[in-house]
Every structure is written in structure tokens, then in C-alpha cells.
Design a protein that fits this description.
Blueprint (H helix, E strand, L loop, with lengths): L1 E6 L6 H8 L2 H4 L3 E6 L4 H10 L4 E5 H9 L4 E8 L4 E7 L14 E4 L5 H13 L7 E4 L3 H9 L5 E5 H9 L3 E8 L5 E6 H6 L1 H16 L7 H9 L3 H10 L9 H13 L9 H4 L3
Parallel strand pairs: 1-2, 1-3, 6-7, 6-8
Antiparallel strand pairs: 3-10, 4-10, 5-8, 5-9
């Protein structure tokens, strides 16, 4: 059976590419393919729902919200334990100097239900803004955000800080602040149908990727490889690696409840699910 995996084309996911390129999945008797999804969380949720992918490496808050809205998938594991650090970016030529200047302005988001939209709510809560006043412009991708900020259709854009750093270095964006997620950032979600019919393949896949991530930071020259592949400066990659912790275990019930309580308080979810609704046990 072929297992289709999808995720964003970002440095967090290099372990998957190395496992595929080195034949690690093949050695375990698995046929695994990867699809890059630059549009991010909203698109990944859609692909799980439509059966276009079997597994998604996806933002925690986005998939929990979508499972509660009927996405027939379950979380099988936390993938990155550390928070995601979202940079808050404006056009380099804009007059906005700090995050407080952005109250009441328009946020560029990749799509409704995306991490970029959900984190705008987290940021509004942090800043003490009225969340009902948030305004959004859908831009689909980072390139779309560059255009929207440049031509004034949107005022700020929240995206993973290190992936957006090259645009800051080139004088396209200016970063006015950061907003870390108050929870582990990436999880692995699998369609329930796949879990029911091919649970052994899922277990084998997790075993392979976990062997890779557990020692990933110690791989000789991994910083240079990440820098080259993702167009990042070496010093930025080293800083990012020092802040990033991969995980090899699943949510516990208290951890999931804590995340759901936070999402509920932020108005990101309007109902909570049971552990069994969301997590594959």
C-alpha cells in the first residue's frame, strides 16, 4: 500500500525528505510519497477530507479545529513539541512601527481556518484587542502576502518567523514582533479510514520518522544542509535548531484538554471534543 504524506515546504519537514531519499521507508517495506503544500493548514485539512492525502504534518490548532468540524481524521502523534514562532510582518515601506499600531488593520491570511488566521486571534488576545474587529484578506501563499502588503490590500502578515526571514533580509518585509504558539506546533494527523485499514503501515511509518527525528539535530552538517535547501542564513538555521524540539510521543489527555481550553478561550473553537474524538489511542 502507498502512503501519501503532505506538509508545508519548510525546514521542520526535512526529516521526511531524508527518510524518503535515503530509502528508510523502503527498507521498512513501506511505499511513501510526499507532497509539498505551500498553502498550509487550510489546504491540508481539505486534502485529508477529500482523501487526497493519507497523512498530514499539520499545525496543532488547525487540525483540532477541523476534526471538531467533522474532518474524519485523528492525531496519531505530536511531531514538533516546541512552539512555532510566528513573525508579525509588515511591508518594509509601511509606516507601522510596532504591533500596537496594527490594531483595527487588515491581516493577510492564507485561507479561512489557516494557522495564519488562527494566530491572528492569539495575537489579538495577547494585545488586548477586540477579536470581533479583526479583518482578513485571503492571499493563499507567502507570494500572495507579499503582493497584498505591497499594494495595500492588507497591512500585516503572520508566518513562521525563520521561513519569512529571507524576505526581511531582502527588504521586502519588516518584522515588528513575534507571537509564539502557546502549545506544541506540529502534529501528525491520519485519515480514520487509513487507521482502520492500515494501522500497521502507520505504526511502521511512525517508527521510521521517529528514528530520524530523535537524532536529527546531531546529524553532521545538518545546519548547512538546511541552510542550502531552504535559502536560510546559517546563523538563522542554528538559532532555529536551538529552539526546535521534535517529539516521538502522542498527546496525553491533560495536554489535549489544556490546548482545547486555550483554543476555546481564544474563540478558535466553539465546542470541545473528547480525547477519543481527536486522538488515536
Amino acid at each position: 500500500m502507498k502512503t501519501r504524506i503532505a506538509g508545508v515546504p519548510e525546514h521542520f519537514n526535512l526529516p521526511w525528505h531524508l527518510c524518503i531519499e535515503n530509502g528508510d521507508f523502503q527498507k521498512a517495506g513501506l511505499d511513501v510519497s510526499w507532497t509539498d503544500v505551500p498553502e498550509g493548514t487550510g489546504k491540508l485539512c481539505q486534502m485529508l477530507r477529500s482523501g487526497e492525502t493519507d497523512v498530514a504534518v499539520i499545525l496543532t490548532e488547525g487540525i483540532i479545529k477541523d476534526i471538531l468540524s467533522g474532518n474524519p481524521s485523528k492525531i496519531v502523534q505530536v511531531y514538533v513539541q516546541s512552539p512555532l514562532i510566528w513573525g508579525i510582518h509588515v511591508d518594509a515601506k509601511s509606516h507601522y512601527e510596532q504591533v500596537s499600531d496594527l490594531e483595527g488593520t487588515i491581516a493577510a491570511i492564507s485561507r479561512n481556518g489557516s494557522g495564519s488566521q488562527l494566530m491572528a486571534f492569539v495575537n489579538a488576545e495577547n494585545q488586548g484587542w477586540t477579536k470581533e474587529n479583526l479583518k482578513f484578506e485571503i492571499v493563499h501563499t507567502i507570494d500572495g502576502a507579499v503582493e497584498a502588503l505591497s499594494d495595500g490590500r492588507a497591512d500585516y502578515f503572520m508566518w513562521e518567523r525563520f521561513m519569512t526571514k529571507p524576505l526581511v533580509d531582502r527588504g521586502i518585509f519588516r518584522r515588528v514582533g513575534d507571537c509564539p504558539t502557546p502549545w506544541p506546533c506540529f502534529v501528525l494527523a491520519v485519515r480514520s479510514e487509513v487507521l482502520e485499514n492500515n494501522s500497521e503501515a502507520v505504526e511502521a511509518m511512525l517508527s521510521v520518522i521517529n528514528q530520524k527525528t530523535v537524532g536529527f539535530k546531531e546529524v553532521p552538517g545538518i545546519d548547512a544542509q538546511l541552510s542550502g535547501r531552504y535559502g536560510q542564513q546559517l546563523e538563522d538555521i542554528r538559532q532555529w535548531l536551538s529552539l526546535t524540539e521534535w517529539s516521538q510521543s502522542n498527546f496525553t489527555e491533560p495536554m489535549l484538554n489544556k490546548i482545547q481550553n486555550q483554543l476555546s478561550e481564544l474563540g478558535i473553537i466553539d465546542k470541545k471534543g473528547t480525547f477519543a474524538d481527536i486522538v488515536h489511542g
